[in-house]
Specification:
This protein has 667 residues and is an alpha+beta fold. The protein contains 21 helices and 30 strands. The strands form eight sheets. Strands 18, 19, 20, 21, 24, 27, 28, 29 and 30 form a nine-stranded antiparallel beta sheet that branches.
């Protein structure tokens, strides 16, 4: 994208009922693209709104015993409240019942009429009120609407017609000449194949009800709701301030796959007839389905309410889940168990811990101040250019899930860097300062790249780490950061699952800590390994009758006699191994003490064999745990005790302790 302005729209929703997950998803996707454009310093206009006319709305209002205007006013408040909660950053919200819209929709009709493209005739056909469109018999499935699976009604009435068929070849030629016009390509091919067939003219007025925009030249008819609705993309630019010069044609109409035809055949044909430029792109997303791949519907009892998820987690967690978990353009299953898993692993473990670790170390070791922006360590080890470029390339390809994957690759690389450089082991001095500065600067990059998906989290990161969020251009500018104490951004969730989560059977047991069996052991004997300088061979009593043989890399700083008789915490379900000929059946948990020595953490006077737990996580140990699984579970020191994501590991007598720096990992 090189344009210096960006106009993006979403479908305008039918407010005949309350907003659902699909509405929320579409707005979040569009919001992401709008925010990235602003981040790049591109002047952006983002439009959402409501499609308030038509038979469907009139019927819903009748059912509610209300006038249609009052009905849509009430519903509009509900939709707006959801979009506010979701952090949608729209610049305008159009409602088709507004005078500004009526005025332009009539003008548009007149332009099309004056171009000779409107005539009066009779129409008879199968109409689906939910879709607000006619179907041909061959399009029906078992005599029912293919989208709503409900019977259609035969409508016969006098109507005005738009010469849609006349524009078929021109629209097809446009789509062929502009491969980027319909994204993804799968949808483009779908339309091109449909455009091989005859395209019939379109009935664009109705006279059997009156909730709509009366035709200027025949007020007994109201404008067909789709002709009316599509006009919103232009009408909203005209008033209160005329922005058409700057923002038309639209750069991106974001819509769902069910309304592809309206946006890629009917809308272009209307614009061609009226003499307006065509939008640059129609981006088509897939559908959100329930966890079993079915449509969400009240009567199936599988509806997950977006407001409820926001309350149970947070708005940014839902936004992240939408953007990361659902492949761009594809249908996807909404499963709270997946959301929970991503919350724990990608948000909590990968990002949340990185922030906590770095912030803590800067506070305790550098007095909370650090300068970023001119640090060679950062440039050498964590240079972000490739990440930023790949992120933007995926954004330009409308592959937002991939864009976020790139950011998480970087988050993991920064975690690895911190583990490698082990700042908790470094003495005060230049090296320590530059490693921590590199960490903060990397987090500044991460905050910017996540700000379009998770604006609130990015703001909290900036507030905690003391840098400003600005356009991407300003990212390299040096600044002095003042790091403040931080609460975990992704606190461990209580296991008492909220209502919405309880519905998902697998929820909660995705926590990686649950698979760990950590027990209290006593070292009966410690001997040097016959064949490895670093290792002791320990004989550890876990209350199992026979002590276990466990190899431990503790020889650099401890003597055998320091270990004999000592209480330790043992990862007891680690897959057994043979280390240079000696069997090892578990692992003694250790960390870097303040003086740099690697020492076991201390379970105090807890009974031998006792299981060590974390509150709220039910241990369901795996039989043979891999080392790589264990490495994904971030255990660390906080205020002298071993914690898992902010929560202490516990025995019946207390916690596990060690005199180590905050943030020191326990391995
Ligand atoms: O179609 N998953 O309004 P609408 C994802 N007023 N997206 C979904 C979805 C789901 N399960 N269900 C619906 C209309 N959508 C018209 C649009 S535009 C000029 C007029 C998407 O409230 C759907 O594809 O039925 C559409 O893009 C949007 O939500 C509004 O649907």
């Amino acid at each position: 994208m090189t344009a210096q302005r960006f106009y993006i729209t979403t479908a305008i929703d039918y407010p005949n009922s309350v907003p659902h997950m699909g509405h929320a998803y579409e707005k979040v996707v569009a919001d992401f693209y709008a925010r990235v454009a602003r981040l790049r310093g591109i002047e952006t206009h983002f439009l959402i709104g409501l499609d308030e006319h038509g038979q469907k709305i009139q019927e819903a209002a009748d059912k509610a015993g209300m006038g249609p205007q009052q009905f849509v006013d009430d519903k509009a408040a509900v939709f707006r409240a959801l979009y506010e909660k979701l952090g949608i950053s729209h610049d305008d919200f159009i409602r088709t019942s507004e005078p500004r819209h009526h005025q332009f929709a009539r003008d548009l009709y007149e332009r099309v009429r004056d171009a000779g493209d409107i005539y009066k005739d009779f129409y008879e056909g199968e109409y689906c009120i939910s879709c607000e469109r006619f179907y041909t018999i061959s399009e029906l499935v078992d005599g029912k609407c293919p989208i709503h699976e409900r019977p259609t009604t035969i409508i016969k009435e006098e109507s005005y017609f738009f010469r849609l068929g006349k524009y078929r070849d021109q629209v097809r030629a446009h789509i062929e000449a502009h491969p980027e016009f319909i994204h993804p390509d799968e949808r483009r091919r779908e339309i091109l194949s449909r455009l091989q067939e005859e395209v019939r003219d379109l009935s664009i007025s109705r006279s059997t009800f009156d909730w709509g925009i009366p035709l200027p030249d025949d007020p007994a008819h109201v404008l067909y709701v789709w002709f009316d609705a599509l006009a919103n993309y232009y009408s909203a630019l005209l008033r209160p301030r005329d922005l058409t010069e700057k923002f038309w044609p639209a750069d991106c109409h974001v819509i769902g796959k069910d309304i592809l035809w309206f946006h890629t055949m009917i809308w272009p044909a209307i614009l061609l007839s009226a003499g307006y430029e065509l939008p640059r792109q129609v981006y088509v997303h897939g559908f959100i389905l329930d966890k079993d791949g079915r449509k969400m519907a009240k009567h199936l009892g599988n509806v997950v309410d977006p407001m409820q998820v926001i309350e149970d987690y947070s708005v940014d967690v839902l936004r992240y889940y939408f953007l990361r978990s659902f492949s761009s353009g594809k249908d996807g299953k909404f499963a709270l168990a997946d959301l929970e898993e991503r919350y724990n692993s990608e948000l909590g473990n990968d990002l949340g811990n990185l922030i906590l670790r770095v912030a803590k170390l800067v506070q305790t070791r550098l007095g909370g101040r650090v300068r970023v922006g001119d640090n060679p360590e950062f440039r050498e080890r964590l240079a972000p250019e490739k990440t930023v470029a790949a992120f933007l390339a995926h954004v330009d390809d409308r592959e937002h899930n991939r864009a976020l994957e790139v950011v998480w690759d970087y988050v993991r690389a920064v975690n690895t860097y911190i583990n490698d450089r082990a700042p908790w082991r470094l003495a005060d001095g230049e090296e320590l300062t530059s490693v921590l500065a590199a960490g903060v600067e990397a987090l500044r990059v991460i905050a910017h790249l996540t700000s379009s998906a998770m604006p609130e989290i990015a703001r909290s990161m900036a507030a905690t780490l003391g840098f400003a969020l600005g356009p991407l251009d300003a990212l390299a500018a040096p600044c002095e950061c003042e790091v403040r104490p931080s609460q975990p951004l992704f606190p461990r969730r209580e296991s008492s699952a909220p209502a919405a989560v309880a519905a998902a059977p697998a929820a909660g047991d995705g926590d990686p800590f649950a698979k760990l069996e950590i027990r209290v052991g006593h070292i009966v004997e410690a001997r040097p390994h016959p064949d490895a300088d670093q290792l002791f061979v320990l004989s550890v009593d876990l209350g199992e009758g026979e002590p276990r043989s466990i190899c431990a890399g503790l020889r650099a700083h401890l003597k055998a006699e320091d270990l004999s008789g000592r209480a330790v915490a043992v990862l007891a379900n680690l897959k057994p191994a043979v280390l240079r000929g000696v069997p090892s059946e578990g692992m003694v948990l250790a960390t870097d003490r303040r003086d740099g020595a690697v020492v076991p953490v201390d379970p105090g006077a807890a009974p031998i064999g006792e299981l060590i737990t974390v509150e709220g996580i039910e241990t369901q140990p795996k039989k043979k745990l891999s080392k790589s699984h264990f490495e994904k579970v971030p255990l660390a020191i906080e205020k002298g005790v071993v914690v898992y994501r902010g929560r202490p590991l516990r025995t019946t007598v207390g916690s596990l302790t060690c005199d180590a720096e905050d943030g020191a990992p326990v391995r």
